Amino acid sequence: xxxxxIVSLLFITLALMASASCVSSGRKQDKNTYDPRFFLEHxxxxxxxxxxxxxxxxxxxxxxxxxxxxxxxxDLQKVDVVALPMGKALAFRxxxxxxxxxxxxxxxxxxxRLVLALGNxxxxxxxxxxALTDGVFILFVELPDxxxxxxxxxxxxxxxxx
Length: 162
Known about the structure:
Largest sheet: 4 strands, antiparallel
Strand content: 25-35%
CATH class: Alpha Beta
Number of helices: 3
Strand order of the largest sheet: 4-1-7-8
Radius of gyration: 17 Å
Number of strands: 9
């Protein structure tokens, strides 16, 4: 390896470490509020990489994630509970600029999953099957249906404050 390769590798390592510290030192959580964040599944699986792994509570699915959220509460306009043939789900409506980013991300990350974290808990994942063009991300979460309305109300109240 030449010196230029070593310096590049060192820079990349330091950048990843800095981004990791930003994720882990996120905003302080209130007990009764949720801080929704959406993480994109890592494109390249590595069994040695465990620091950014989501484990869903019911299915026990393990998903390796990029170390930073793709979207967060600041990107949301509103959250609704929707009744679908398979059950109830959360419908996250994104702000216009975030909708464009969601469309781009879903188009380029087809086959990968977007994982929802509420507070410090990973609660659901949805695989992108193509571009989401309407700015709405519908997600079945691994929680009882009766918990969805209070979660949606809490997130909407938090969105309204900002």
